[in-house]
Design brief:
The chain is an all-alpha fold and 28 residues long. Helix content is 79%, strand content 0%. Helix 1 packs antiparallel against helix 2.
């Protein structure tokens, strides 16, 4: 899914902020 790819990209850029929310979304 493109949406998941976008979240993963932001995780690398801003792991401090999106890092916590991204892994939860990625798991699902």
């Amino acid at each position: 899914d493109d949406r998941y790819s976008i979240y993963v990209g932001k995780q690398a850029i801003v792991p401090m902020t999106f890092g916590r929310h991204v892994p939860i979304i990625s798991d699902r």
